[in-house]
Amino acid sequence: MKSKMKYLKYIFAIIITVFICFFEFPYYIDAPGGLDNLNKKVKVEDSYDADGSINLTYVKELKATLPFLLLATINPDWNIEKKTSVSIGTLDYEKYMNREKVLMKQSYTSAIKFAYEKAKKDVNVDEEKCYAIYVFEDAKTDINVGDQILSIDGNKIEKCSEISNYVKTKSENDTSLILVDNNGKQYERNVTYNNFDGQIAIGIQIGIEYVLTTTPKYHLDFDANEYGPSGGLMIALAVYNSLVPTDITGGEKIAGTGTLDSNGNVGEIGGIEYKLKGAVKGGAKIFFAPTGENYEEAKKIKEKKKYKIDVVEVKTFDDALEYLENNIVKK
Questions:
Q1: Distance between CA 56 and CA 228 in Å, rounded?
Q2: What is the pLDDT of residues 299-315, one digit of tens each?
Q3: What is the second-level CATH architecture of the domain 2-121+216-327?
């Protein structure tokens, strides 16, 4: 009997240990990431060599197991968030993540297109993939975030502008059948056109992923768990550096963050505190921060922590490029 009780105690102890170590609470933990060398992520055929590196910075998202939750309560650089707190409007956590993955594709292909154009290299848009990245609360549709729109009422969509042009021909309460692709499977979605502040619309926001043909060719090698549009600026800098003979890294570790639109404008992002701390941890010399609140916050953190890193405010791609050319490139 004693042997049986001892055995049950061991089983109970194992169950408790597994629960403590592996059970995930409905939270996640934000923490400083590090540097992600883009030489290993964006590979350009016959590229010029770089003595230094251009790096993404990122927020590390930790699973909310009990040990990590306890550590987060005493680590000032870690922050506990409820999964529902990252929702935007009607987006739950899963839809939010789908949206972020689509935005990453949009951001990265736009950045590559811009970099090739800036370096005066051949780049052609073979296809535009049009994704639903947000569905408004008043929309009368079963379209999901992450759906790629293939056709509307049998009309194949080849450019995303064709969607808005078609919608303009509709009246309130008209209906359409929309063919979409979601994770490799096709579905038929329904929509009833609605009046949004005097304008007839489906009630979705569209994100565009470019399918490009370039000379020289390029290849992206990102992990499935990477998401978000904030790497646009740094990807454009890395691709540009691969295409031109002058090494803009000057042998240094260059880090930063910020979205990049088709005109080369840098946009603000989230998690600037974690990204700056990750850049410092990774030994970067420079950290590019989007102008506005991002830059002001990064500057305050640098001064408070007395970080030995140059925090550089950028409004455009050219701001970052000119800074590197004037301050980093070794003559």
A1: 12
A2: 999 999 999 999 999 99
A3: 2-Layer Sandwich (3.30)
